[in-house]
Task: inverse folding
């Protein structure tokens, strides 16, 4: 199984603690640390994905919680894959980090939460990808920098432990998803040109 970049700091410590506790004959506590290790491995999974169909693909796994106008918001529970992907081919034109709160990511006030914004210039027009921290998410990881050329479905970063991703879609696209739909990063087409 492929794991997300930089995950060893989340997986190795609880695993080492489990081994130490086993050595000290503390099986019950060791079992708790081993369970935590297994959850961390599961959470940091990073499966390969093949972009589906034509058009803009989902930047995140999860459930659509808003599809108003030119914005699609996706809530990622702790059980979804948290690696985010480029919705279209394009070039990263800028990055912006905003400090903020840590409200539940599925609620509207989460727009004021801590977030990282990836600006992209694409053949279909400019897009913005907002990686938004949630109540448990305390770490937004961005894999890209200004000037990077991305292909549709390339990994752009991840958010740890429940969060939200919003994509601002350029004019001329028709949104194909609706509130409540489940989507998969790098596979589900969420909007098409025309």
Result:
């Amino acid at each position: 199984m492929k794991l997300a970049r930089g995950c060893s700091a989340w997986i190795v410590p609880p695993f080492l603690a489990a081994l130490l506790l086993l050595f000290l004959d503390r099986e019950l506590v060791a079992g708790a640390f081993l369970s935590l290790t297994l959850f961390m491995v599961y959470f940091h999974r990073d499966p390969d994905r093949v972009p589906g169909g034509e058009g803009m693909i989902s930047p995140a796994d999860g459930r659509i919680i808003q599809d108003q106008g030119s914005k699609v918001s996706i809530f990622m529970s702790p059980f979804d894959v948290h690696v985010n992907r480029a919705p279209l081919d394009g070039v990263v034109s800028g990055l912006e980090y905003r400090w903020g709160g840590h409200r539940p990511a599925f609620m509207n006030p989460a727009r004021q939460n801590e977030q990282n914004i990836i600006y992209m210039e694409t053949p279909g027009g400019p897009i913005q990808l907002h990686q938004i921290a949630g109540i448990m998410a305390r770490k937004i990881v961005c894999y890209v920098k200004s000037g990077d050329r991305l292909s549709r479905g390339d990994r752009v970063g991840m958010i740890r432990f429940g969060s939200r991703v919003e994509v601002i879609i350029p004019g001329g696209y028709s949104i194909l998803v609706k509130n409540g739909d489940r989507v998969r990063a790098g596979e589900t087409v969420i909007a098409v040109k025309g």
About this structure: The radius of gyration is 18 Å.
